[in-house]
TrEMBL record:
Active-site residue list: Y105, D146 (proton donor/acceptor), H247 (proton acceptor)
A biological process from GO: DNA repair
Biased composition range(s): Basic and acidic residues: 237-246
Positions of the record's site feature: Interaction with DNA substrate: H247
Keywords tagged on the record: Hydrolase, Magnesium, Manganese, Metal-binding
UniProt organism field: Inquilinus limosus
Binding site for Mg(2+): N7, E34, D146, N148, D246, H247
Domain of life: Bacteria
Name of this protein: Exodeoxyribonuclease III
GO MF entries: double-stranded DNA 3'-5' DNA exonuclease activity; metal ion binding
Record's cofactor remark: Probably binds two magnesium or manganese ions per subunit.
Domain Endonuclease/exonuclease/phosphatase stretches: 4-247
Site (Important for catalytic activity): D217
DNA sequence: ATGGCTATCACGGATAGA
């Protein structure tokens, strides 16, 4: 079973690129971030034509996430618990073939020292609580998405450029580490322990051409799922295309 | 580098991203 995450940066602007990739990579399940459209405006037909079922949680203009699956999606859920006043569409959850798949778009948080950063940290605390709840259930799950967290210096081509940034601040990384300390496994890092790999390259400054990237898109596997991990790769191909998203997909394979 | 690209909304330029 192939599980993917991809921040597409607008599902409408990226439609042909996303569909092309789905046809070639054939993930069983994928979580998409920054669809940037309302739920009703998601290009449902085009995805269904490729055999995908959809769980969409959108909003106008910004954010928006989706879970797409070749298999039935059971117990669908949208929104991350813990703040009834949070109107931003950043979280979706559903069970596919016995695996609880969580798709998330973690707040960017810049600039640090503002309410935006406070929102990011609070959101991470809520995610931590959700992970604890799922761990207590004892069933396999994966939290995948754009975490907007550079876990370590080696996850940035130019780590000094990120000092003071909300993606790399100690408080941010500490909270990410709290998730792994709960027992979640960073799938790509676990299977590529000494490799360098990035999942995002800025549109500016020739970042892609210079491979000046950061690794911020992650698939965190629960212990039950980590035992089944076979491969995890960052697929750089879509990033090199015309009209590319600034993120590229991360794909894990788990035994059934 | 004072984020020098991109998408959205809405039709100019602000807002957000990372």
């Amino acid at each position: 079973m192939r599980i993917a995450t991809w921040n597409v940066n607008s599902v409408k602007a990226r439609l042909s690129n996303v569909l092309d990739w789905l046809r070639s990579a054939e993930p069983d399940v994928a979580v998409l971030q920054e669809i940037k459209c309302e739920t009703e405006a998601f290009p449902r037909f085009e995805f269904e034509a490729l055999g995908y079922r959809l769980l969409v949680h959108g909003q106008k203009s910004y954010n928006g996430v989706a879970l797409i699956s070749k298999h039935p999606i059971e117990d669908p859920m949208t929104g991350l618990e813990g703040d009834d006043g949070d109107a931003q569409a950043r979280y979706v959850e559903g069970t596919v073939k016995g695996v609880r798949v969580c798709g998330l778009y973690l707040p960017n948080g810049n600039p640090a020292g503002t309410e935006k950063y406070d929102y990011k940290l609070a959101w991470m605390d809520r995610l931590h609580r959700r992970a604890g709840t799922l761990l207590a259930a004892g069933r396999p799950f994966v939290m995948g998405g754009d975490f907007n967290v550079i876990p370590e210096e080696r996850d940035a081509a130019d780590p000094h450029a990120w000092v003071g940034d909300a993606l790399f601040l100690l408080e941010t990384r500490r909270r990410y580490r709290a998730l792994t300390h709960l027992g979640l496994t960073d799938s790509w890092r676990a299977l590529n322990p000494t490799a360098t790999g990035y999942s995002f390259w800025d549109y500016q400054g020739q970042a892609w051409q210079a491979d000046n990237g950061i690794r911020i898109d992650h698939l965190l596997a629960s212990p039950e799922l980590a035992d089944r991990l076979e491969t995890c790769v960052i697929d750089r191909e879509p990033r090199g295309r015309d009209k590319a998203s600034d993120h590229t997909p991360v794909v894990a394979t788990v035994s059934e």
